Each structure stands twice: as C-alpha cells, then as structure tokens.
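Can you please make up a whole protein chain along with its backbone structure tokens because I've never seen that pairing?
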Amino acid sequence: METHIIEIQHVSKSYSGKKVLDDINFYVRTGEFVTLLGPSGCGKTTMLRQIAGFVNPDEGCILLEGKDISSIPPYERPLNTVFQRYALFPHLDVYDNIAFGLKLKKLPEEEIDRKVRKVLKLVSMSDYEDRDVESLSGGQQQRVAIARALVNRPKVLLLDEPLAALDLKMRKDMQIELKEMHEKLGITFIYVTHDQEEALTLSDTIIVMNEGRIQQIGTPADIYNEPVNSFVADFIGESNILNGTMVCDRRVEFIGHEFNCVDEGFGDNVPVDVVIRPEDIYIMNRTEGAQFTGVVRSCTFKGVHYEMFVNTESGFELQIQDYNAFEVGSTVGMLIKPADIQVMRKERTCNTFDAVVTDASHVEFLGASFECDATGFEPGSRVKAEVDFDKIELMDHREEGAIGGEVHFILYKGDHYHLTVLTEGRGHVYVDTQDIWDKGDLVGINISPSHIKISGTDGQEA
C-alpha cells in the first residue's frame, strides 16, 4: 500500500489581502524526493515554511502521517530545514555545529559522537570537524548545514534553495551529492528551487507552481515531455510555443502547415497551443523530403550543440538545436515527427471580464469605465465583456491608458508576443503584440469601443 508521509489539503495563505497560496493540494510519498518549482513569488517558499511550521495556513490543513500538524510549533515537528543562508553558529567549530541539536536533547556523549562522525562521513567532511566554519568554502558550509539537519534523523528534510549561493560548478557537484545522500538515507526530501535543470536532475516528482497555484505535478520526464499548459512548457526548458488548430484527431495545423501528430480527443478545428522542443526539429541542408523550409538567421555554438534561429517561409521564427552548424543565410529543410509534437488545450481564446453596464454607451470592468455599445442592457446589468488579445493597446506611460498595469509574463509565439499584464486592480489582461516589452514594464491599457463585445449571462449580445 502506498504511504503518504505528507498531505497538503486545500491550503491557502494571504498577506495584506493578496493570496500567495490558493487552494494547494498535493501529497508526498515516504522516501520521495519532491521539488516545488516556480519563479520568484509563486508561493513555493511560503508552502515549505508552512510545512516546517514557521507560517500557519489561513485555510486547509497539513498532515504528517495522517495527523494534522497545522497548529504544532516547528520544534515539535519531526522535520528539519536547510536554508539558502546556512545559519551556522560562527562561534562553534564544525563538530559542535552539527552536535548542537543533539546536545540540547541531552543525549549521552558517546551517542552524540557516534552520530556526528557518521553524518560527517556522509557529507564528506570527516577531516574538517575541528575547523572554524567561517574558514570553509560555501560548498563546505552547505555540507555542514545539511549534516546538522540530518544528524537528528528527521522524517522529512526541507531544503529551501540550498544551492542558490554556490557557483555553477559547485552547484552541479552538490546536486549529485544530494541525490546520493537521498538514496543512501531513504529520508523524504522536499526541495524548493527556481532552477529548472536542478529540479529535473534531483527530483522523483516535480510540483510546478505559478502565482500561488499548482500548474502541474509529475515526474521530470512528464513535466518536460507533456507540459499541461504554455506556462509549464515555457518555464521547463526551452520550447517553441505556437498557435495551432487541431484539424481532427492526429492532425494539427501550425506555422502555415498541417502535420500528423499523436494527440486525440480535442475535437475538429479547435484552437490549441503546440509545443515543439528545439532538439526535436530535424534540420537539413536540402529541401527535398522536408515538410517545410526556412532561412537560418543565427547560429551560435553552445558547447554541446549549436543553437539556431530559422525563419520559415510562412513567417515564423523557430529555435532549433542540432549537433551540426548551418550557415547563416542558407536555405534549409525541416521535419518534425508526429511523436515530437505536443498539443495542449488553450487556457483561453480571448480576454473575458466580469463587467457592469453603467449606461447605453459605457461598461465598467477592471476598476475602470470603458466606452462601448451596451444598448439593450439595463444600467446595473452584470455582463461579460470580451476583447480579443490583439485588440488591447499598450501605451508607454500609465497616464496614457484608461488603466495601468505591469508586464508580468512574456511568451513568444513564433511570430508575435503573448503578454500577461497585471493591472492595478490585480486582474489580468492578455495581449498579443508585435512590440517588444520587458517583464516589469509599467504600461497604460486602452481598448477601442468597437473591440469590446458585451454579452449577458443568458447569451444575449449587445
């Protein structure tokens, strides 16, 4: 029977009225290495701190071996946490830092010595027991911090971006060591990181988070090869994410061509998103036998492979990775196998806002009044306002728009950018544009009256 050591049930948390965790549900199997992965501000560290007991959930509960521990203080939970900042005691040497928790428990000196030496060997620090911790390298200090957490034999080890402060080579070395430690100890690890490669390398299971919600849970292979939405596809590795149409089962259209694929059950002529990994596009110097052609615009050596950007004859830009270099300006043929095409349902096909009619020519949504044709609806009527992605106009300055916002997420779709703009009222506006914006840009938002389509809850349209 499968054993769940940790269960998170409907956990939510807000700070200053902003929800940082929204109805989180997942479980962790005994002995599993689970990683909470996502960008800064997605809620992953808040979730880890709630498991540790440093933060209490506003709603929901946290179960440890079936028992609700939501109200139990951190020091009474059989868990230990390793932080990004190692939090070692500078006045104690390596041995005494590791032994500190055992001495608080007043264990016999022989037992303390046996446990400390065992864990020193585990983290490859046996010759450093008398060293001053401040004389150690970052990687060595992290080993001491991990040893101090492991010496108490916790049921679950929580790790909050523990390798973030290390340089690239040491980080990769420590990834291997952490994986080996996990396999030797059999302890459950819950790990937090924003590093996709780290998550793919270490984890049995990855939980991808964004804006306080879980986007996908799966094995590293599942997350990489079968992303459930465009955020996951973009965040986990490099991808070509393109608008497409599911023509019928096992047949999809994108970049101006139809392709065979392996996906079914979407229906006929349904808008979809298509994901193609750069390494899954086959590129050749000839056009015979190719499904489509293009011109190489750049070719960069990346150590293991060459990275190329190719403009297709239908006007789309594709990122391609190949072991061979192709000359810039040359015409190439390309081919994509059916199994390498990942089709995803679109999360939305246009902007849809909950709105209120103020009069025959105005409607209010996102905390602002917009001019539009609302004839046929009584003032005060609650309606839906729909606006196509490419009908939103972004301005360089907040004061130039009806409302202001901040560019929150940018997705390149091959021939345009799809932006998520977070408005001042905390609502989202989705924009298709040819213009180049940066994440964090402050913008004004305008919508032409003719581009706002109003409909009632019964389907009535203005």
